[in-house]
């Protein structure tokens, strides 16, 4: 059994591989389909971007396709970087964003908040869209609450994990093991919601 996920993010892919392995599924990602076009994320919401990725690739491959659009929403920044999380520190035509340049920019933006020694609350958000040709897509979302720490810690995970302090853990999400993160993260919670409905939906 196999699931196609419309992602090029190796960190996400690893988490999906682990979560789907428990259900007896192998995962394929866009890294396995180099001939497919890039899908431009022109949406302004997580759902729009997840739909663009899942529905475009499902229509090309004529197969069911899952997509994840996710990001970090910082309350004191009005929910930014949000849907722009992956591209936060990009300078178009000059430099691509990397996980570490995104973290550096976010910590810079939060400088005055840290000086006030307030708790910089934030949440990771994940929207999953499962699309299949000629049918309505499944959509589920979940959040993971925490705070931003000014000093990055931990080597696991990806993206903003080194600066995301998990509520009640005293650890960043990069200090959690992959097993721990895959039980409590925004992506794990969205997967749980999807699990309730997707096999039935796939077969109808
Ligand atoms: P695909 O669109 O190809 O899936 P992407 O990295 O561009 O890959 P998104 O547009 O959904 O994916 O951007 C999500 C960004 O939000 C991601 O690059 C991370 O910086 C951040 N992010 C999402 N989930 C995260 C997690 O579990 N841990 C840390 N950072 C996360
Ligand atoms: Na993306």
TrEMBL record:
Active site: 69 (proton acceptor)
Domain of life: Bacteria
Binding sites annotated in the UniProt record for substrate: 7-12, 70, 158-161, 181, 186-187
Binding positions for Mg(2+) per the UniProt entry: 40, 69
Self-association and partners: Homohexameric ring arranged as a trimer of dimers. Homodimer.
Function (record text): Pyrophosphatase that catalyzes the hydrolysis of nucleoside triphosphates to their monophosphate derivatives, with a high preference for the non-canonical purine nucleotides XTP (xanthosine triphosphate), dITP (deoxyinosine triphosphate) and ITP. Seems to function as a house-cleaning enzyme that removes non-canonical purine nucleotides from the nucleotide pool, thus preventing their incorporation into DNA/RNA and avoiding chromosomal lesions.
Family per record: Belongs to the HAM1 NTPase family.
Designated name of the protein: Multifunctional fusion protein
Organism (species): Pilibacter termitis
């Amino acid at each position: 059994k196999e699931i196609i996920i419309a992602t090029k993010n190796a960190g996400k892919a690893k988490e999906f591989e682990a979560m789907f392995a428990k259900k007896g599924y192998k995962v394929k990602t866009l890294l396995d389909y180099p001939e497919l076009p890039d899908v431009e994320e022109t949406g302004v919401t997580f759902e729009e971007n997840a739909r663009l990725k899942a529905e475009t690739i499902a229509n090309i491959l004529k197969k069911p396709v899952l997509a994840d659009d996710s990001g970090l929403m910082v309350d004191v920044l009005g929910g930014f970087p949000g849907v722009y999380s992956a591209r936060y520190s990009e300078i178009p035509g000059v430099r691509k964003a990397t996980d570490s340049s995104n973290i550096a920019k976010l910590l810079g933006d939060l400088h005055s908040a840290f000086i006030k020694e307030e708790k910089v609350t934030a949440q990771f958000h994940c929207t999953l869209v499962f699309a299949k040709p000629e049918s309505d897509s499944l959509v589920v979302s979940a959040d993971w609450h925490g705070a931003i720490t000014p000093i990055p810690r931990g080597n696991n995970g990806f993206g903003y994990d080194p600066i995301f302090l998990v509520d009640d853990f005293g650890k960043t999400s990069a200090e959690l093991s992959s097993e721990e993160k895959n039980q409590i993260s925004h992506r794990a919670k969205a997967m749980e919601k999807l699990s309730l409905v997707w096999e039935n939906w796939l077969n109808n």
